[in-house]
Amino acid sequence: MKIAIDGMGGDHAPQAVVEGVVQALKEFDGVEMYITGPENIMAEELKKYDYPKDRVKIIDATEVISTNEHPVMAVRKKKDSSIVKALHLVKEGECDAIISGGSTGAFLAGCTFIIGRIKGVERPALAPIMPGRNGNFMVVDVGANVDCKPQYLAQFAKMGRIYYEAMFDTKNASIGLVNIGAEEEKGNELTKAAYQLLKEEDFNFVGNVEPRDISTGDVNVLVTDGFVGNTVLKMYEGSASTLLKMIKDEIYSAPLIPKLGAALLKPVFKKLMVKFDYKEVGGAPFLGVNNICIKAHGSSDGKAFKNAIRQTILFNERGILDTMKKEFHKEK
Amino acid sequence: MKIAIDGMGGDHAPQAVVEGVVQALKEFDGVEMYITGPENIMAEELKKYDYPKDRVKIIDATEVISTNEHPVMAVRKKKDSSIVKALHLVKEGECDAIISGGSTGAFLAGCTFIIGRIKGVERPALAPIMPGRNGNFMVVDVGANVDCKPQYLAQFAKMGRIYYEAMFDTKNASIGLVNIGAEEEKGNELTKAAYQLLKEEDFNFVGNVEPRDISTGDVNVLVTDGFVGNTVLKMYEGSASTLLKMIKDEIYSAPLIPKLGAALLKPVFKKLMVKFDYKEVGGAPFLGVNNICIKAHGSSDGKAFKNAIRQTILFNERGILDTMKKEFHKEK
């Protein structure tokens, strides 16, 4: 399998990207990596490592798209950027997949315009996996589509289900609709209409899931519009971070004995942090486009990029794209 | 001041309501309480306490509206319910305010239809105060208006600001728009349009606030549509609860030393729990209606009801209703 990776995408690029690539080459046989970015910088970075040179190619790209730029404009104008070059490698069939830790907006726009949608899919959706108390769960969409029609949500459910069942090697994944009430008639215009579409489908639709219950992880795939999905994602990250900081604040101002307690508890917190660590999970798949497109977290380190590569390989091996194409061609 | 309280509203009613009323009568001079509910049950409950009998009246109400009922239908049909009776006490001028821990839907519908809106207010909004790391913050709206127009959000900002500044005795409260990006042009159709309205106002509008940053408490008043606001509220509660349970899970399965650490840390967690305790905060004001309407948490205990009564007294003393009426009459 050949994977294009945006060498300049992410807060810690290019170092973290190259580190992740080298780790992946050692761990996963049969994968070839195409790194896009300024040739001299990439070569310099790779030099630090010992790695199988026949399985890495540097594709020169002189420009970089920053997260502050207007995504659509940047993708159109910066044809020599690391992200656009990587997208073209996929578009022209040289690579089978793309990974980027760069501007989410540019990535989504680029995947949609350059790679294109699967026939029958109205709106591709970004669908990260998140850690819950009783298991991982997936939210579709978390920001690619901020204004949605009910039928988009029905498609998000189909795509999310295919991905979740294949990646976690399970059947009959439970699908829930994010809503601010449990009963069928609750919610806004969008969720009320989406509920009616979802209950007609022949998958395991469990009904509305209230935001309070999302983080239990009891429901596998949660569908929602991109605005609410992004709010769910960011509130989860933000609340966890705030709570831990508040615990630290309290410990800091506490007397000696609780401080000692905190020291003894360290291994517990460490274990918990691993559970919450996005680096373990890989990236978020952009579902509904014609190729495998993985958005890595902006703050990814080497390990996170390596795991995104592992996820990409699995995405390919499990034939998710073909299943999705069949599902949606059928629909048309 | 005369306050009507729904004697049958809440998971622990009538016991918790009566307990809160009795505590409030002892703590706050000059307040008179009108409790609605089945006369015999209320009298039986009050008998348990020693209290100033001249400051409590039982208003017989034979029906109860449950949280499973259709709110609008229930308010229309159950004219002898504890909540509708309490609303009429306010409507007819016998009482100055209403508190209920019952069905949120019925409370909001009842306040809107029976008590009515302030002239000039398009949509009243439910606006709880929440604990952040660096201070309390307020979210307007958290569920009264699931489908919003931009101008509603501009009004939420005005109402929230008046309430926040009066209750926390501060000036120049910061107002933020909940949005999934920091830049002006980010968001969905609603937030983009609302941003333009908010920046024209002569209050301290600080721009978009991403969900990740809400729980810091750095921005005082956050405006959003009721669907997203409810998601924010419930994700915050749910994430905090999940994280604490995950900490407990880990401690439970940990060896002796971390377990000992957890025991030593108990006072720290206790202090933190007080910060997160809705019982300390009181209830959520329903802003934009013609009287003081406070929605207490469904799981309120006696202390929570007492604090909701304290909040109601403060709401009255600070002249919030008059300020709001002036603000919106001016607008018309």
Main features:
acyltransferase (chains A, B), phospholipid biosynthesis (chains A, B), transferase (chains A, B), 2 domains, alpha/beta, homodimer, seven-stranded mixed β-sheet, 12 strands, 49% helix, 332 residues, five-stranded mixed β-sheet, Isopropylmalate Dehydrogenase, globular
Brief sketch in words of this structure:
2 copies of one chain form a homodimer. Chain A contains 13 helices and 12 strands.
Task: Write the topology of this structure.
Two copies of one chain form a homodimer.
Chain A: E1 2-6, H1 15-27, E2 32-37, H2 39-47, E3 56-60, H3 71-77, H4 82-91, E4 97-100, H5 104-115, E5 125-126, E6 129-131, E7 136-140, H6 150-167, E8 174-178, H7 189-198, E9 204-209, H8 211-214, E10 221-223, H9 226-252, H10 256-275, H11 278-281, E11 284-287, E12 292-295, H12 302-317, H13 320-331
Helix pairs in contact in A: 1-12, 3-5, 4-5, 6-7, 6-13
Subcellular location (chains A, B): Cytoplasm
GO molecular function (chains A, B): phosphate:acyl-[acyl carrier protein] acyltransferase activity
GO cellular component, one term (chains A, B): cytoplasm
